[in-house]
């Protein structure tokens, strides 16, 4: 009977230790999870922007193909193609700037989240140590 109670108390102690380790792991990895979630949200925005740009480019290319096919002279077709090419270059430069901005903002947001959580943790630890010293 004593062995049964000893086994139960040992199991209870092990379960408590496992819960403590799990809780410590959660508090340790929680800032990383939050920062990675912010980073993922930012890159999802970048992906959405790229898909939207690709769709717009495709639609615009179809419109331009129809316009060139309906042109009445070679000079008109060349002018349409030149205008289209100029607008494409401007669109690609503008889109590259947007994507670079979104990517940089995403990285900064995730690092800011991580720094803020580290600062909050340090503040809590300082408060706990100050309270314990009293």
Can you give me a brief rundown of this structure?
The protein has 134 residues and is an all-alpha fold. The chain has helices at residues 2-69, 74-133.
Summary tags:
mainly alpha
Task: Give a structural overview.
The chain is 96% helix and 0% strand. The protein has 134 residues and is an all-alpha fold. The protein is elongated, with a radius of gyration of 30 Å. The protein starts with a helix and ends with a helix.
Cα shape: elongated
Structural class: mainly alpha
Q: Estimate the mean pLDDT confidence.
A: 80
Number of helices: 2
Helix and strand sequence:
HH
| Rg result | 30 Å
The proportion of residues forming helix, as a percent range, comes to: over 70%
- Runs with pLDDT <50, length 5+? none
The proportion of residues in beta strands is: under 5%
Q: Write down how many β-strands occur, each being a DSSP E stretch of 2 or more residues.
A: 0
End-to-end distance, in Å? 46 Å
Largest sheet: none
Secondary-structure blueprint:
Blueprint: H1 2-69, H2 74-133
Helix pairs in contact: 1-2
